[in-house]
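Hi there, hope your week has been kind to you so far. No rush at all, and the record is pasted right below.
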Amino acid sequence: MSAESIHSTLTRLPWLDELVDYLKTHEDDLWSWFSTETDREKQAEAVRLDLLRTTYRIDRESQTQLYETADAVAATLGVDAPLTIYQAQQSPDLNATLKFVPGEIHVVLHGPLLETLDNGELKALLGHELSHYLLWTEWDSEILIAHEIILGMLNDPRGDEVHLETYRRLQLFTEVFCDRGGLLACGDLATAVRVEVKMQTGLKEVDAASYLQQAEEAASKNGDGTPGTFVTEGFSHPEAFLRVRAIQLWNSTASTENSDSVENSKNASIVEQTIRRMIEGPLSLEQIDLPGQRHLTAVTREVISEILEPAWMKSELAMSHARLFFPDIERARATPPADDAEPPFNIRTIIADSEKTLALYFSSILLDFVTADRDIQEAALAWATQKADAWGIAECFAEFATKELKLRKKQFQQIRTDAESLIKQAEASHTTT
């Protein structure tokens, strides 16, 4: 596969695109500053000095075959920069790292890698590390800039859990991307699998086919062993079986032969969604990143717009409450959607695919608008029960509303039964005023 084909295949993952777009849109001042003000040369000197002090630099003359392999991988991935390989001192565990310097490639080997990996496996390993360089230098270095911004947010006293989770997922998706580069560099799924297992276990012989089956089985179960999609618990690297499953899935759609076909595009989209699910898990209020927060904000706006669809629900008090969420809420849904128009979000599907905190969150928003205006509270509660039914959170809302409004179950059930008539009365009252 040519370097041009590699670049068309090794594309940026959707989550990375979303992060960059979020930062450019919502943190444009930071984006501008980090794009221009970072002292790259000072950082580069620090990296070079650290390498001199903590590694053994492998010369090209002493390891010609190693460098021929590395140069071939660089050519395959389309990476054009001087390349130097080092052996870490006092580091017995198998590992490899890229020490980033713009315009220079510095790869550090840890442990007895050269005795453990064959030439094809070494290509996969080097392909992974060079893909780190590729990710930080291609696309106008946007991922590098994003990485530095998120680190800056974490170091700021105002940084919180959403920034930590964003940083965690940035590292995890980076590894997924680089694993793909390793696969493309060696050109063989079994070889890429063997490298992953050898790096984790130290074994010199690995049955790739057997581990592929193991990985598929492990990734198809939740943490409690029930059927489902496993969600990584890793901070910087996904679990080995998950990484293997991710490259196996991606490999099934990475061929460029049918890249223009509708079917291949559909399959590729399903694969990306599956991999995202393994990294992100279901949408949750308790574990959310910046792109997820942005998505949830947009969904919340749609939820409130749906709550305010009836004209009688747009009382002054209700709209004042809505403006606490979105000051420009009047511009939302200025024209009701046509009966056959698709809403921007399918709220029912989003809630069904999310963690249970989302059902509680939307139940609380519904109740907010039930209690916002006492003059329409009974009709608003009737309307809220219908929305809760439509969104698949009827049971959750019923439990939440009866507790907060101090209603007996029988009272609440009566309002559900009379919902249509209560809503019609509210519509009639609004029309005559």
